[in-house]
């Protein structure tokens, strides 16, 4: 599949985005461990999340899907059954790592297999602590990569400090901790997204969080069955937010989007770069805050992204790199070496595609240095099989002269079904303005530029 993109007309839209990918994975697993029936609304029916759903079905959990975004999960009080076949995690690192934690405490063996892309990604970061807890996990691929053979056992709680900031590793250990004796503590040097902790708390699992950056789960608890509504994914919203922020007088309002403070670092970066940004939390009843984000575009300026910001921006760095190419001055991204072991080497992929479009980019060992503003020109660009690279450079095409073609873009379906339809809305010169007035809207007070 190819995406063909041309320069966008003025952006003035109100939209919603699909359900949060990270929360969808975790909600399905915890609901499956609960003591009854849970209805999950707003579920993201992407390829990655469906791999998690099908994995739980293979482990004996009944999951109905009356609508694409609604799941009815029949929890079995933490009782899982051995799968009849190996479990295919596709290209979903979240599925594989969370399942490794879940299966570490089961009295049977499971083999987890993956697509070629995921089979190149490191799994030692989750294997080592789970083995320390008492599991027996063998990585059958070279250099501790998939397939994984997980032989669960009697687990004991541990205190663990990951060497790499990873919400997936933290989530895997907390899931394993539910089946362990005593307490399991994960101490983070740099904070990562906290959806697993919030999901556990919402399903009435007792945890403890300390200001120093550690989270503890107490073993042998059964989650209480509850219904849950999944908010829109701010990482999916990021593509459209950057598009509006980078366009002079662009305006975008996104409703019903997740505003968890471990996920909103993007908004702070856009503010630093010169965009006007407003967020308003409208609902916190289910612990995951949700509300609206509104952005008005102004000429952007370069910024520096490093340190504690990086783990909270790891999914947004590709689209922020595109923003950097459109901004005045230098944008520097450092301490982001984790980008090299995602679906592809994202540092190399970003540098290659930006240069192909005419931007000046220096590739660093752990990041990028981008000099802007660049007069981008349309080009044929590779997705490198990475959904976030494909979407980021489709947005880049909205600011390029001529046509931009993103090749092998079917990978977008891993995280954002419907992206192509929304992209057409942004590029349609005949679209009608569908936004509605918002009390306190930035656009009512913002001075018109040029």
Verbal overview:
It is a single chain. This protein has 450 residues and is α/β, with parallel strands linked by helices. The chain is built from 13 helices and 25 strands. A four-stranded mixed sheet has the order 2-17-19-18, covered by helices on one side. A hairpin with a 6-residue loop joins strand 18 (276-283) and strand 19. The radius of gyration is 22 Å and the shape is globular.
The helix fraction, in percent, is 25-40%
Count of DSSP H/I helices: 13
| CATH-defined topology of the largest domain | UDP-n-acetylglucosamine1-carboxyvinyl-transferase, Chain
Biggest sheet strand line-up: 2-17-19-18
Query: Major beta sheet, specifics?
Result: 4 strands, mixed
CATH architecture of the largest domain: Alpha-beta prism
Counting structural domains, the number is: 2
Low-pLDDT windows of residues? 432-450
Shape: globular
What share of residues are in beta strands? 25-35%
Question: What is the CATH homologous superfamily assignment of the largest domain?
Answer: Enolpyruvate transferase domain
State mean pLDDT (0 to 100 scale).
94
Task: Tell me the Rg in angstroms.
Answer: 22 Å
Number of strands: 25
- Summing up helix and strand content along with how strands pair, one would put the structural category as alpha/beta
Kindly provide the name of the CATH class of the largest domain. Alpha Beta
Topology (elements, then pairings):
Elements (H helix, E strand, L loop, with lengths): L2 E3 L6 E4 L5 H13 L3 E5 L5 H12 L3 E6 L2 E5 L12 E2 L4 H11 L5 E5 L10 H10 L2 E6 L3 E7 L3 E2 L2 E2 L6 H12 L1 E2 L1 E5 L7 H8 L4 E4 L3 E5 L9 E2 L4 H13 L4 E8 L6 H9 L2 E8 L6 E7 L7 E2 L11 H10 L2 E5 L12 H11 L3 E5 L2 E6 L7 E3 L4 H11 L6 E4 L11 H9 L14 H4 L5
Parallel strand pairs: 2-17, 3-16, 6-7, 10-12, 11-13, 20-21, 24-25
Antiparallel strand pairs: 1-25, 3-5, 4-5, 7-9, 8-9, 13-15, 14-15, 17-19, 18-19, 21-23, 22-23
Helix pairs in contact: 1-2, 1-6, 3-5, 4-5, 7-9, 7-11, 9-10, 9-11
């Amino acid at each position: 599949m190819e995406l063909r993109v041309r320069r966008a007309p003025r952006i003035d839209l109100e939209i919603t985005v699909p359900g949060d990918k990270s929360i969808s994975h975790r909600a399905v697993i915890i609901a499956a461990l609960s003591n009854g029936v849970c209805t999950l609304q707003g579920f993201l029916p992407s390829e990655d999340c469906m791999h998690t759903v099908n994995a739980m079905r293979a482990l004996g959990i009944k999951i109905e899907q009356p609508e694409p975004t609604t799941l009815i999960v029949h929890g079995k009080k933490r009782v899982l059954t051995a799968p009849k076949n190996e479990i295919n995690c596709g290209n979903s690192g979240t599925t594989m790592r969370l399942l490794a934690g879940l299966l570490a405490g089961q009295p049977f063996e499971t083999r987890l297999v993956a697509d070629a892309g995921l089979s190149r990604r490191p799994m030692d970061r989750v294997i080592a602590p789970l083995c320390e807890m008492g599991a027996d996990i063998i990585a059958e691929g070279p250099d501790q990569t998939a397939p994984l053979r997980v032989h669960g056992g009697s687990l004991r709680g541990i205190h663990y400090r990951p060497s790499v900031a990873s919400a997936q590793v933290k989530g895997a250990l907390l899931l394993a901790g539910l089946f362990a004796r005593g307490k399991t503590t994960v101490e983070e040097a740099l904070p990562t997204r906290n959806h697993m902790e919030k999901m556990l708390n919402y399903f009435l699992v007792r945890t403890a969080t300390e200001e120093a950056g550690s989270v503890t789960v107490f073993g042998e608890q059964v989650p209480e069955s509850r219904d849950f509504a999944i908010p829109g994914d701010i990482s999916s919203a990021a593509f459209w937010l950057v598009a509006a922020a980078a366009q002079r007088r662009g305006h975008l309002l996104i409703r019903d989007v997740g505003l968890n403070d471990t996920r909103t670092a993007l908004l702070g970066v856009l503010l630093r770069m010169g965009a006007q940004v407003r967020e308003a939390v409208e609902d916190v009843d289910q612990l995951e805050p949700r509300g609206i984000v509104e952005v008005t575009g102004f000429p952007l300026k370069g910024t520096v992204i490093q340190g504690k910001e990086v783990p909270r921006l790891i999914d947004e760095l590709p689209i922020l790199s595109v923003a950097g190419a459109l901004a005045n001055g230098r944008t520097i991204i450092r301490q982001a070496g984790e980008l090299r072991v995602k679906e592809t080497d994202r540092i190399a992929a970003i540098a290659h595609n930006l240069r192909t479009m005419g931007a000046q980019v220096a590739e660093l060992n752990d990041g990028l240095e981008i000099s802007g503003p660049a007069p981008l020109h349309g080009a044929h660009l590779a997705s490198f099989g990475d959904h976030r690279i494909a979407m980021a450079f489709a947005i880049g095409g909205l600011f390029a002269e001529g046509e931009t073609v993103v090749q092998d873009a079917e990978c977008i379906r891993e995280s954002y079904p419907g992206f192509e339809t929304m992209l057409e809305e942004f590029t349609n010169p005949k679209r009608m303005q569908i936004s509605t007035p918002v009390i306190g809207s930035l656009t009512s007070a913002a001075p018109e530029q040029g």
